Amino acid sequence: MTSAVQIKLPSVTESTMKFILLTAVLFCGLTSAQDVVAEDTVDTQSCFPDMCKFLKEFGAMTEKQSSMEARLKEAETQITELKKKDATKVAFTVGLGGGQVGPFSTATTLIYKTVKTNVGNAYNPVTGIFAAPVTGIYYFTFSYHAGGEHPVSLNLIKNNEVVVGVHDHRSSGDGADNGGNSAFLQLQQGDQVYMQLVANTHLYGHIAVTTFSGVLLYQL
User: Fold this and answer.
1) Element (DSSP H or E) covering residue 141
2) Cβ(103)–Cβ(150) below 8 Å
3) Is-contact 41 51, C-beta < 8 A?
4) Which pTM does this prediction carry?
5) Which DSSP category does 171 fall into?
6) What is the annotated signal peptide range for this record (predicted)?
7) Is 209:186 a contact under the CB 8 Å cutoff?
8) Taking a C-beta distance cutoff of 8 angstroms, is the pair 166, 187 a contact?
9) How far apart are CA 124 and CA 131, in angstroms?
10) β-pair partners for 155
11) How much is the pLDDT for 22?
């Protein structure tokens, strides 16, 4: 974890600046008075260049301080953003129970109600939809179990578009089927990912075999 080192620089107050400028004006006034009161003149010619030099150095110092303060503020902002990114944890694994699922007359979103892990609570067990809490690269994987008496067609969906899927044809000589797939996805905050069973296909719900998982790898 990156920790911030705060450096507090002494600031030049407005009253201090006014005092210094007033002093400069007084020196300038004394210099101009030499032509009027010659007998009381003092050697201000040597003082005036020194004051100008001082003001120039003082201005440079003030500018340098402002630059350093701006850099410190930028560094603190970057550290805060890094802390936010490091604090975001997202991971889930859910299982689908209930035995025979489908076939349905239309494509159906599967609702995995058995929640094994849901760090960050980005998966909704009521709707079956995962909503990305932050922009980043995510990894998703799913598996299924099904009988051979019906075809299987299961897709991983991102915002209503098919990303990857699995398919298996009906086979009279095939007693059972198992399969799965996975994908890396770049998601924006709010993007939705879920599993969808294609119309007129089926699978067998088992909380340990028919599963859906996802994890945030890193933020962008």
Assistant:
1) strand 136-147
2) yes
3) no
4) 0.64
5) -
6) 1-33
7) no
8) no
9) 8
10) 165, 196
11) 57
The phi-psi region of residue 20 (left if phi > 0; otherwise alpha if psi is between -120 and 50; otherwise beta) is: alpha
Strands 176-187 vs 108-109: parallel, antiparallel or unpaired: unpaired
- Distance, C-alpha 20 to centroid of its chain: 47
Q: Write the single-letter amino acid at 40.
A: D
The pLDDT value recorded for residue 18 is 58
Regions of the chain with pLDDT less than 50: 1-10, 12, 31-44
Rounded Cα distance, 69 and 73, in Å: 6
Query: What confidence score (pLDDT) does residue 40 get?
Result: 46
Query: Whole-angstrom Cα distance, residue 44 to residue 194?
Result: 83
170 vs 152: CA distance, rounded Å: 8
Looking at residue 21, its amino acid is: L
Q: Which two tokens stand for residue 2?
A: 């990156």
Asked if 12 and 26 count as a contact pair (C-beta separation under 8 A), the reply is no
At residue 219, the pLDDT reads: 94
Tokens of 68: 């350093």
Q: What is the 3-state secondary structure (H, E, C) of the chain?
A: CCCCCCCCCCCCCHHHHHHHHHHHHHHHHHHHHHHCCCCCCCCHHHHHHHHHHHHHHHHHHHHHHHHHHHHHHHHHHHHHHHHHHHHCCCEEEEEEEEEEECCCCCCEECCCCEEEEEECCCEECCCCEEECCCCEEEEEEEEEEEECCCCEEEEEEECCEEEEEEEECCCCCCCEEEEEEEEEEEECCCCEEEEEECCCCCEEEEEEEEEEEEEEEEEC
